[in-house]
Amino acid sequence: MSEYRDTLAAWKLFVHLLLGTICFSLVLLVTVGLNQFVRYLTDQGVDPFIINLAIGLEYVTAVIDAFLYIIFLARISWHFIEILWGHDERNH
Fold it and tell me: Which of 30, 68, 74, 89 lies 20 to 30 Å (CA to CA) from residue 22?
């Protein structure tokens, strides 16, 4: 039974990591799109205040996304370790 639990835990970890990584990557792609939009606005001669505001939004979005992704990785890894050690109280 332990081998089944370990295999199931490994697959659950893989699926959670894959789907989580895809979700966080989508947010990062939005940030890259914002960067391209800022470059377009700069070429069009938009007010520097608006450009700086958009660049700030771009940086904040990227930093928050990276920070939350690190937290996601830590939490899912810890949950995987709990399953392997048999201390999973949530019975996932």
Answer: 89
Residue 24 DSSP symbol: H
**Contact assessment for residue 73 and residue 66, using Cβ atoms and an 8 Å cutoff:** no
Quick one: which of 11, 16, 10, 8 has its CA closest to 69? 16
The per-residue pLDDT for range 10-35, each reduced to its tens digit, is 788 888 889 999 999 999 999 999 99
CB 51 within 8 A of CB 41: yes
- Answer yes or no: is 23 within a domain: no
The reported pTM is 0.75
Domain that holds residue 87: 1-6+47-92
Q: Count the domains in the chain.
A: 1
At 50, which amino acid appears?
Answer: I
